[in-house]
Specification:
It is a single chain. Helix content is 19%, strand content 30%. By secondary structure, it is α+β, with helices and mostly antiparallel strands. It has a domain at 15-202 and 303-356: Jelly Rolls. Strands 1, 3, 4, 6, 12, 13, 14 and 22 form an eight-stranded antiparallel sheet that branches. Strand 12 and strand 13 form a beta hairpin. The longest helix has 46 residues, at 346-391.
Amino acid sequence: MKLLVVLLPLLGLALCDPTVYFSEKFEDDSFESRWIPSESKGADAGKFVLSAGKFYGDAEKDKGIQTSQDAKFYGLSAKFDKFSNEGKTLVIQFTVKHEQNIDCGGGYAKIFSSDLNPKEMHGESPYNIMFGPDICGPGTKKVHVIFSYKGKNLLTKKDIRCKDDVYTHLYTLILRADNTYEVKIDNEKVESGELEADWDFLAPKKIKDPEAKKPEDWDERENIDDPEDTKPEDWDKPEHIADPDAKKPDDWDDDMDGEWEPPMIDNPEYQGEWKPKQIDNPAYKGKWIHPEIDNPDYVADDKLYLYEDFGAIGFDLWQVKSGTIFDNILITDDEDYAKEQGQETWGKTKDAEKEMKDKQDEEERKQREEEEAKRKEEEGEDAEEGDEDDMGEIDEDEDEEPEEEGDIDHDEL
């Protein structure tokens, strides 16, 4: 009995072990044997290179694949053993670092079925899920969460804002078998809810009754004109009148200038358009609400989360300014394991990464200040040399000695 008591907890631990469907940390160049570039864009395709970037927390652990050419399409994918998430939680997680302070470009991943042809992957290749940040100008800074359902790609109805700085960030999508989801950034929840509510997977449960119509005598006017209110007899005054203080100029010639007319001014007695005062409408029935009925096209689906075939992950992107680094990719069925892995990777190097960037920024600031000081010093020296040159110029007339008052011009004698 004691042996059984000891074995049961161990058995429970074994049953709870996470399933890792895919993991990639881009530790060295060997990733090139696992990841296949798409050939669909030809000469317009950009190249991913292995790099930790210009600043990092750990020179080795922070290596990832980096977009290396501006204004290019990027297509790269890797395949893994086919699986289904039926009855299970699905977690998709990776880090994104927009080191270049991106102005327009994607940072998302696509999860495909096992029949993807990596060399032919392109923007129209069918996928199951698209997830990750997308930035383009000040108007688009969002996290895409797109699900494919019955041949249609469905965008979330919610606006999930992504990070738009230059540091590494951890993005996590959790898809649960109870048809709920959660989005995390840096291991913190930023959005969650129900799939049916936040995406248009299904037709609406209720629709407006096509047979219902607002009654013709239905009065929605909350206020009406007072029928007993009448316009005062002295109300109507012209908006503009002739200026009573104006006088015809003395030099005005009626024959030459035409008949003189005084200029017009605003009439101080003008009261505008008269309108009767408003009173409560005794016939008011409120706003008419169109009655709804059950939608005959609505069909419930308790497996919106389900995909029978996962088999590949890829990056299919366009970037104006290159420099984005992807790393620490994980696809698993365990939320806690994903959180731990995020903390072990991104969590352990994020502070050191920022410290390195801050140090670089400070060094660049000092260098700029030194260069500016040197420039001003050189400009000051040039100005002093110019002043000395001006002082060295002597007027030729000043070299001649002036005649004394006693001097006599002998020609005048």
